[in-house]
Write a structure and sequence with these properties.
The complex is a heterodimer of chains A (about 110) and B (about 110). Chain A is mainly beta and about 110 residues long. Chain A contains no helices and 11 strands. The chains are: A mainly beta (about 110), B mainly beta (about 110).
Chain lengths: ~110, ~110
């Protein structure tokens, strides 16, 4: 158990809908990263927050947004969902900005 | 664009047959290089962090090394339980942390 908690574990929703994925980082960790992993793409970096501030943005679609709250938990919002958004979404946390990150078990999103 | 390339894509070894996995990266302000192990359907599990060329880290049958352009993960006398996908990630000074596509390792008894 890495100490990073992601909810829900599984999510099935229809095209066009909006969902929110939640991540609770390890106690004391200030950095949160979000990744998308689909079968043919590997782990794709989406966004990085540090102590509530956005620090880096990767290949995140405009339909996706994220935030990190004062209690350091983070949420990833996915809207106008398409079939191609079906994937595993991982959150990872680390104490600072340039140390190893520890991953949660992921949220498996299925868009039907 | 900064890239992280892992090779080979897949590797099949007999139990006890040592080998190495490669991770090469384009340099554009490297802050750190990380190795992870991922089992199917699970989150990546942290193995090693390397920060500077010449650095080495070791844990059980695994040893990671770093040069200015690449990193190697050496697996000595692997066992079937070492079967997994091994991922390399590079963090740049812009705070991106980007992963390679991974090497899928299978160790046969």
């Amino acid at each position: 158990d890495s100490g990073v908690t992601q909810t829900p574990k599984h999510l099935i929703t229809a095209t066009g809908q909006r969902v929110t994925l939640r991540c609770s980082p390890r106690s004391g960790d200030l950095s949160v990263y979000w990744y998308q992993q689909s079968l043919d793409q590997g782990l794709q970096f989406l966004i990085h927050y540090y102590n509530g501030e956005e620090r880096a943005k990767g290949n995140i679609l405009e339909r996706f947004s994220a935030q990190q709250f004062p209690d350091l938990h983070s949420e990833l919002n996915l809207s106008s969902l398409e079939l191609g958004d079906s994937a595993l979404y991982f959150c990872a946390s680390s104490p600072t900005e340039n140390t190893e990150a520890f991953f949660g078990q992921g949220t498996r999103l299925t868009v039907v | 664009e900064d890239q992280v390339t892992q090779s080979p894509e897949a590797l099949r070894l007999q139990e006890g047959e040592s080998s190495s996995l490669n991770c090469s990266y384009t340099v554009s302000g490297l802050r750190g290089l990380f190795w992870y192990r991922q089992d199917p359907g699970k989150g990546p599990e942290f193995l090693f962090t390397l920060y500077s060329a010449g650095e080495e880290k070791e844990k059980e049958r695994l040893k990671a090394t770093l040069t200015k352009k690449e990193s190697f993960l050496h697996i000595t006398a692997p066992k079937p339980e070492d079967s997994a996908t091994y991922l390399c990630a590079v963090q740049y000074y812009n705070n991106d942390m980007r992963f390679g596509a991974g090497t899928r390792l299978t160790v046969k008894p």
